[in-house]
UniProtKB/TrEMBL annotation, chains A, B:
Pfam families: HAD. Its EC number is 3.1.3.-. It comes from the Bacteria. InterPro entries: HAD-like_sf, HAD_sf. One of its GO terms (molecular function) is hydrolase activity. This is HAD family hydrolase. The keyword Transcription regulation does not apply. Keywords: Hydrolase.
Amino acid sequence: MLTTWRDGAAKKAITEFVEQAAEVPADERVAAFDNDGTLWCEKPAPIQLDFILRRLVAVADESPELRSRQPWKAAYENDLAWFEAVVAAHYAGDDTQLPALAAGILEAYSGVGVEDFEAQANEFLTTTQHPTLRRPYVQCAYAPMVELLAYLRDNGFTTYIASGGGRDFMRPISQAVYGVPREQVIGSTATLSYEDDEHGGTIRHQPVLDYLDDGPEKPIRIWSRTGRRPLLAAGNANGDVPMLRFTHHTGKPTLRLLVLHDDPDREFAYTTGAEQALDQAHRDGWTVISIRDDWHTVF
Amino acid sequence: MLTTWRDGAAKKAITEFVEQAAEVPADERVAAFDNDGTLWCEKPAPIQLDFILRRLVAVADESPELRSRQPWKAAYENDLAWFEAVVAAHYAGDDTQLPALAAGILEAYSGVGVEDFEAQANEFLTTTQHPTLRRPYVQCAYAPMVELLAYLRDNGFTTYIASGGGRDFMRPISQAVYGVPREQVIGSTATLSYEDDEHGGTIRHQPVLDYLDDGPEKPIRIWSRTGRRPLLAAGNANGDVPMLRFTHHTGKPTLRLLVLHDDPDREFAYTTGAEQALDQAHRDGWTVISIRDDWHTVF
């Protein structure tokens, strides 16, 4: 039981919480997990960004006139710093470049059928190597978190993935990697359209964001999907704070987990993008998981 | 097994389909049901309309100036014909009045927390009598459809409610009435907001429609929630046609069910709003369920 976890405050908090949760009716035992940086590695860049960049390069290959425009220019020149700067500016309150990036990404998949999109994501995730960990992306999940998901399910929990990443990007691999069935994956999505034909019709991506499942949208999407307030939530970044705050019940056990990336030898060490979350963890008494101290193994 | 169903083509089609579906992996056995007119009675008016009218009357009670404006005027004067005319005009392509009706309904719940809203819906559905059937609304579900839902689940299906009605309106009673857990209820919803506080915060209705789960939106919402194309879908109206058309697989069994309201003695007899669906059922070979002929009992 939790053999990949070292004895310590985090493991103790988890096992005590699960013991207490046995008193709660099983259908209320809802656990919600962020994905990037919580269930799998998000450095040196989010896995989905690699998928998107390859698509933008393919688009620029076909349309040379786009190579002088963002975001195709940065993708074509492999200028990761441009993407990082746009995201950093966004978190600093400057959205000058973000609309161009979002539009480029949404355009890249416009008109693609959801079943085709999943097949592309599946192919990418199962065959592409992580640039520094030297293993396929589907093997970049954290073993202790995979074990935690299974431990929760063994104790009657339903485990959801509430990620800022793309819902249909994660679904094809969620069962195999995490034991989480596709209907329990919550994430961001483009607006979709349904086009009828004689073979059951096709649902296609439209070049308009439906919602970005991050920040205050996370509690909304968890409610919309489950109709419940979770007993447990786990995240690692500022965008997870509202989901963790929402995980609150009077008279029922709750557990809020925050993964701290403090292990440069086995994974990465960073707190950028998690400053507010770490501060809130301290104030609200959340359980901080130290990758360095709390996990026997990482992958 | 299906004791409330009379022997006949519909019952035969169902049992044969379920037998064939045993060959399909259990996690692909997804069944989607419309609610109003498919799982419970929608005449003389949809059950949720009664709930909305009472709320509009309460608003008009507090704000006399609204009593001369639609939709509060019609609600206050119990002028059901106005509501019927707006909906009929909508289906005839005339949306002159629909925005006022939609705005009135959305305004009526603006700012209400989702947990409060559910408590109000639950109270209404469990305590209000159907105007002609003389039984509480929660007892207006069709017994043969409730038995069908259970029969499907006994055979490894997951049963979803994909209704044009309000998701959060149905959720509080879906388990007790249909055996369908709240996370398997798909329906229409207003846009929601999340407001943080020291007690887990509140998700509130905003006066803007998020989506109306009807027509081509039904396949989109089923996909978004389940990540799957159903093996079985059941409906009764034109708005269910895309969901039934979407229920199509090559090399796997499928079943498309259309409930025909042809029993004026035990329920109601009407085809208004189902003309296109009945026509499509004939062309696509869907299974039409005659309430008069196929069901031993209705409620």
